[in-house]
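Example 3.2
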Amino acid sequence: MPKNRKPPIRSSGHARLPQPRPWSANQVRDLLTNPMYGYGIVLEPADQVPAAIQLFEQQLADEQNKRGFGFTLQELDQRFQSFFTSLVEGGSFTRGNDTQPIIDKETWLHAQQVAIGRLARGEPT
């Protein structure tokens, strides 16, 4: 091929995929407040799970303020697992088929720990 010529542009025949939209704050918050993502536990109705978790986080923040120190990840794990069980046993939610979590449990719990700490300080989450 002569030096002046550019190689032909070849089309792959595939249409360009649209660029993914950035996550909204609400989508991130829902991810961080749904046990499906950190535990693989599917609770139904799914659209009500984040609100239930956020209410529980507020209860834990109030307890944290009363006791004067934060929760360890192990304590949070025990508390959240008991809470998930109580939601099902109380009839508020049903448990669907478990799924593969997309983040590890420790990361999910750490996000709860941060949110609880913020709530305990009166900050928004």
